[in-house]
């Protein structure tokens, strides 16, 4: 039984691994949730990555905007402020986004 006042060290180290890999994604490059999970050592945990990114504190300096879905699109609803912010940040890094909101993974994806 774990003490509720102490953080789960496995969860902390998993989050640290994820955030360390995320921080290393270069500007102008995107990764999918699944790729980020695999790079952090958690293959097939794309949904977990999404949950962890949702928990980032406001103002986090981690490049959350470089994570997109496997279809090459933002996972935010197109009418949301987060969608507009993500595309704005990516464009500022030189990422080309089609009028339909798609990003060419072949061109901007992590190789």
Automatic annotation (TrEMBL):
Domain of life: Bacteria
Pfam families: DNA_binding_1
SUPFAM superfamilies to which the protein is assigned, alphabetical: Methylated DNA-protein cysteine methyltransferase, C-terminal domain
One GO molecular-function entry: methyltransferase activity
Domain spans labelled Methylated-DNA-[protein]-cysteine S-methyltransferase DNA binding: 16-95
Keywords tagged on the record: DNA damage, Membrane, Methyltransferase, Transferase, Transmembrane, Transmembrane helix
Transmembrane segments: 20-42
Biological processes, Gene Ontology terms: DNA repair; methylation
InterPro entries, per the entry: ATL_DNA_repair (IPR052520), MethylDNA_cys_MeTrfase_DNA-bd (IPR014048), MethylDNA_cys_MeTrfase_DNAb (IPR036217), WH-like_DNA-bd_sf (IPR036388)
Protein name per UniProt: Cysteine methyltransferase
Lineage: Bacteria, Pseudomonadati, Pseudomonadota, Gammaproteobacteria, Oceanospirillales
